[in-house]
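Archive entry. Fields below.
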Amino acid sequence: MTMDRRTVLGMGGAAAVGVLLAPGVQLIAAPPNETAAANAHRWAMLVDITKCNPACTACIDACRKENNIPLFGDPARDIHWIRKVEVQDKERQRPPFTLPVLCNHCEYPPCVHVCPTSASFVRKDGIVLVDEHRCIGCRYCMIACPYKARSLVYFPTKPPKDGNPQVPIRAKGVVEKCTFCVHRVDDGQPPACVETCQQSGHAAMMFGDLNDPQSEISQRVKTLRTETIRPDLGLKPHVHYQGL
Amino acid sequence: MISNYTAIEGQSFRYWILLGILGGFFLLGFGAFVYMEVYGHGVSNMNNQVVWGAPHVFAISLLVMASGALNLASMATVFAAKHYKQFRRFSAFLAIVLLAGGLTVLLLDLGRPDRLLLTMIHMNFRSMFTWNVFLYTGFIVLCFLYLWSMFEHEKYVKIAGSAAFAGRLILTTGTGSIFGVIHAREVFHSAITAPTFIAVSLTSGTSICLLLLVATFRYTGRDMDMRLIHGMRNMLTFFTLLVFYLFVVEKFTKYYSPAFYEVEGWILAGPYSGLYWGGVILLGLFAPLAILFNPRMSNKISGIMTAAFLSILGEFAFVAHVLIAGQAYPLQLFPGHEVSSLFLDGQSAVYSPSFVELLLGLGGVALAGILYLLGIRFFRLLPKKAVAPEDWHPWNP
Ligand code: SF4
Ligand code: SF4
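PREDICTED_STRUCTURE:
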């Protein structure tokens, strides 16, 4: 068998040029999807950790149910939208405490910066979402998020029988994370974790609009000493903590 | 001085056996991909902390090596080392095939490889990955142009070769920057990560050229002037010292600031310290240097080949260490505090590659090997006789 090397080289070169140029061609306009949220709001959460009961997992359970999050029974690969973290300072100068940690819906989210397909995006109201139809599962966002807020779906998933029809199940191979229960927020309700925390009687979590100066969360963030996790990274997280 | 280029016959039993073995590995790798595609990444050992596992180690190692493989050609074209001119075609072609092997693994390890086209349609230009898509495809285009000019239009060789040289530096900077720019990961984040990747690309690229040149010449009954091998050996020595220097600078910088004591202590004595000391430092640095500076061993082909092989192992260990240890080191939610959770906060992640992942990675190596074998069979990439100028005498230890 012989092959004309000029043809082969030419074909290879042409293919490579094609691949190089293809990205520049905007074949399909980005769907408007959820990007079009009003920018009048700036949703945020405030957690009073002095009220967070170490034994309570109400927020986690509520989140799992509300968002159809499957449990695979493998701690390293289970999907966590929200988790309870126990913290103890190394000098043991104060008692250990627990706090819920979830996606911080950063104002400058590194996960969005690194996502090659723009599957991760920030809505105008500050909610950071993953478009699961656009995510290619490269997992770069998981590397970039300092809060370990993202999980890859490691196993095939099925919609649960008694699940919440409002929240589509995420297929294997994509990355997912807390959405601040965007479907509820758009309906004027607080996220499921916050609602359950209130109902459980601990009332450690609250949710609201930072852009509304009258809202309780604005007032409290303004007047109380609140902090965020790793403020030094400069990401401006929107989950604030009181009593940290 | 430049002898005539010829393709190999590629009819020998050995050629077909080699092709068959590599083909088998490629098929196994493809099978591993299908398996992972059907059952999800759960069949790998990756987890939510170590999300890039063995396939990434193979892919990135091949990509880094690809950029280094072009070095021989650059020596001839950009640095006017005329005696390497006869290996230009080989070197540029090898860069392309290694790149093809690495990229294939990278793409097949995506959670949703079926959506690959999306990366071409929706581009996020703030993402280092997006830039890398351009850098890889751009580098392939530049190598093709370079090859084409060597084959057809010698007058464009200088410009095409210089462009490819610049391309490879930018490419490796881009690859190193996938890690170096991530603020949240303390093991990765450093301005020196990208230059270190470049230095490592030089050692592994030179090594793979050495190994393949010697093997190809030997098994196809071609002649090679030993001084050419000695010249490459000297390059390898120099590049390995460069890597050593960058490692020292890195540790020096880190140990100057108490903020890094904890993570540095973890690197040097933590769960992945074996990979660091055994793989990166011993196999990749000290062992090759010991051979290269030993006059008895470094004047023999077998010694040089061993050093080259160790350098390649060292490169894999280096990439594995940056990647795996970089991810396994727990994210510091509250620096100075102990944290724990059901999501394994505060714990070093446990990861060892699964069989599926290794097969997928080896499949990429096999693909590169197959393309190389086909390349030397169908293109005139190598001279029948490689000679060096009479008055050229490379330094000997
Ligand atoms: S917490 Fe992580 S996932 Fe959430 S917006 Fe910030 S970087 Fe992204
Ligand atoms: S895994 Fe998905 S969401 Fe994350 S960076 Fe990649 S494409 Fe974007």
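CURATOR_NOTE: The pocket of iron/sulfur cluster (ligand 1) is lined by residues A 103-106, 109-111, 128, 145, 147, 149-150, 177, 235 (CB under 6 Å).
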